[in-house]
Amino acid sequence: MQVEYVGRKIDGEKRDAILEIMSDKYCRAIIESTMNAPKSAIEISAESKIPISTVYRRLQNLYDNRLLAISGAITTEGKKHFLYKSKIRSMVSRFNGGDVDIEIVPNDPC
Q: Which structural domains are found in the chain, ordered by start?
């Protein structure tokens, strides 16, 4: 069975930011790691073999550009426990006559 996804077109400064993010191997690894299920930063770091400090920096960048969702809670001991999930399922970019078109297919919600 073939499924057709409908994406949304991205323009302007957001397009440039997304292209920069997707050119970063760590950001791509985080998006891939969190595509199917929410994960903690420690789980992402262990699975992707990315240093934890790098994971936190990239998570913030992905969240700031609305490519990542964050859910979490504060435990009874007062510890914060956050889970991260990719908000994108796929991305298509096309170079068309000197312009770059980007289309993003949203990921299923948590």
A: 8-106 (1.10.10.10)
Q: In what order do the strands lie in the sheet with 8-10?
A: 8-10, 99-106, 88-96
| E strand or H helix at 65 | none
Nearest to 17 by CA among 56, 87, 67: 67
- Dump pLDDT digits (tens) for 19-59: 899 999 999 999 999 999 999 999 999 999 999 999 999 99
- 3-state secondary structure at position 57: helix
CA–CA separation, 102 vs 32, rounded Å?
Answer: 18
Q: Identify the CA nearest to 28 among candidates 64, 67, 66.
A: 67
Distances (CA, A) of 107 to 47, 57, 63, 70: 20, 22, 14, 14
Coil vs helix vs strand at 82: strand
